[in-house]
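User: Please run a holo structure prediction.
Assistant: Happy to. Please share the sequence and the ligand.
User: Here you go; the ligand is magnesium ion.
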Amino acid sequence: MKTQFFSVKDPRDPVLQTVGAILRNGGLAAIPTETVYGLAANALCDDAVRGIFRAKGRPADNPLIVHISDLSQWDALVTEVPDAAKRLAAAYWPGPLTIILPKSGRVSDVVSGGLPTVAVRMPSHPIARTVIDAAGVPLAAPSANTSGRPSPTTAQHVKDDLDGKIDCIVDAGPCPIGVESTVVSLAGDKPRLLRPGGVTPEMLEAVLGEIDIDDAVFHRLADNETAASPGMKYKHYAPLARVVILKGSFAQFQQYVDAHKTPGTMALCFAGEEGDLSVPAIAFGEAGDDAAQAARIFAALRELDKRGATTVFARFPQTDGVGLAVFNRLVRAAAFQIIDLGGAP
Ligand code: TXA
Ligand code: MG
């Protein structure tokens, strides 16, 4: 299949109506959102949704997020919108937050991976919203990467993974947040954070009171554990290189890299540190700037692959604010390998 490429700056660009029609008619389109690029299909058409799984090589039991542009679309997708969900949506939609609730009969098992629940998000990106409006249907959309690869934050990343496998790619520049949405389940007795993202645990607790944080946010699940969020059980965000996170001061990091480098070793460091390392280095934002780190982390992981890194030593990001999401993604890229060098970060 020939993938069409549309560069769009203005949400009023008429080409977005064409993209809406492609989607309504069962096609696949990669679109920008404020978090990462998504691979969209008509959520009400099983054949279209199966196309997403095929193009990404995604396991069929990993459910998709359904994207809406208007609150009225939510009612049809779930059995009921409880009060807590209404308050969350009022506080953080449109935005980087996905809310899981029991699904209605309109959501097929293809979308929900066989689960009795559905994940819904209203994105804030003006181009994503225009495309959902133009399609006139809710859009199922996972991140637009090949399954297992780092999520795409530019249209070029999407092209690198999916060119020839989907109908079109809408390029609107880099995604401002850079890590995927926060996923919270309101389908159980107590609200549960399944994946950290742009909406922090503190922001959720400000609306919901105390929440549970799923074990999979911090730890590798044992083989016999079931993931509340199926995506968490797969090897994720993995670059081709072996990644090891080093926890400690920059001086300790420099020393460790010096002592352990081999040909092909590279560093994933904070901005400004590149010149003070004895191996090629790529930065993922300034030290202490969680938003900048989130915006850069996936592009940096892809860049290391492009440059042929075989081993990557990474700085330990902060874990507060959006930093928790950065840490969650990086620790998966590192297959949970962290070496504590003993000092302060
Ligand atoms: O920011 C985002 O969320 C991006 C953009 C495109 O909106 N989308 C995204 O989708 O990251 P995806 O498919 O890459 O990640 C969705 C995550 C997966 O870990 C999946 O297992 C989980 O959400 N998920 C989806 N539906 C679920 C459900 N009903 N119950 C539990 N987890 C669910
Ligand atoms: Mg994904």
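The chain has two domains: 4-217, 242-342.
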